[in-house]
Amino acid sequence: MPTTKVNLETTDLNNYRYDMSRCIKCKGCYWVEHTYMPGVKFSVRCPSNYWNDFDSYGAFGKMRIGTGLVEGKLNWTPTLLEVVYADPLCGACDVGCKRNLDLEIELSLEAMRVKAVQDGAGPMPAHKRIAENIAATHNLFGAPHADRRKWVTSDIRIAEKADVLYFAGCTASYTNHEIAQATGKILNAVKTPFMLMPDEWCCGNTLQSVGMLEEARELAKRNIEAVKSTGARRVLLSCAEGYRMWKVEYPKLLNIATSDLPFEVIHLVEFADEALKRGDLKLTRPVNTRLTYHDSCSISRLADPWTPWSGERGWMGTVSPPLKRRRGTQGLYAQPRNVIGAIPGVEFIEMIRTRENAFCCGAGRGTKEAFPTLASSSAKHRLEEVKEIGAEVLVSACPWCKNNFAQAVKEDGNGVKVMDFSELILASLDA
Ligand code: SF4
Ligand code: SF4
Prior knowledge:
Layout: E1 4-7, H1 17-21, H2 47-51, H3 59-70, H4 78-85, H5 92-97, H6 105-118, H7 125-137, E2 164-167, H8 169-174, H9 177-189, E3 194-195, H10 205-209, H11 213-230, E4 234-237, H12 240-254, E5 264-267, H13 268-278, E6 289-293, E7 310-313, E8 319-320, H14 334-341, E9 346-348, H15 367-370, H16 372-389, E10 393-396, H17 399-412, E11 417-420, H18 421-428
């Protein structure tokens, strides 16, 4: 029986020819499983296809487009670029598809963007501007590099040397000081010394997400070496996208496993859960509200660790050696819920679509910058769900989610209060 050599490199769309061509158009990537679905109102999982009903925008359409691209039957056009990039790469289709079929949908979508860049068609103009900003100022916004640590106030103690290194990331460093400050204060409160990178640069999330892998790889190498030189054992993030970048994409870009990184990558939700279990995190101040939690894609279904794989595909698509699929089952689902459940006064209520079925806020991975109406449509749809369950506060653990939801609340005036996980914890700390 003839076999084909194959690996998981997204630099060659041919690696996903089989996956893309075997889509059966069952739309398991679009509908939330009926067993979780109380009705039709919140039954979809794809922000891209929710924004534009045309089939091309669903994963089932994109798999056919990817097949056309790899077979040389399609040329890049402005519409084709929109279909490929108007998509937060949220991974909901991937976990939905893998309930029935072992097809690598998320990686196929990423490889299509890499091909767009290789062919000189992508990314979108907004992404090119971000890439220029990062090259010039080491941050997404093109803000002065010298301002990166402006979030550090005199009441936050930062160590010269510590086991934990807090990587604030571009958003918390420039546009969301409140998240970096709350994170610093939580670390201080539980008496965990932490340091910062001597010279923090962007993590490269947007570059990786839009297919600019060469540029993202350079940042991965630089940032890993910079952390290594500090001797840190743990890199802590308060940004979900940054967490995914360090934990999953850096190893993917460097063809190593997450376990090969010379340090552990953790998110604040994990750290807080550990500190709570040790008895160091004392959540004593009541937060009297009815509250729900939004699973940010990059710390949930996109957070399974990375392991390189190469092998052969043979009869009926079987692969050898066996491939341990990433199914979104190793995300940080329990940790934030444990911590929130320990806050006195909180009445916690789940949304209809939770954990790996959560509906993405629509902002991440270059989407809000290039397709703000998509980001807005996703956030508003998610906020309808928040209203439906009667929650007053929406908590997420990513500045991208917070900002996108906050803008949607402002536009719709629906009265929901949007908070980051770090702010919620800070509000319940002992005075
Ligand atoms: S769930 Fe998978 S096989 Fe089914 S339509 Fe979506 S991508 Fe295709
Ligand atoms: S990654 Fe998310 S937005 Fe993109 S096709 Fe899949 S479900 Fe839709």
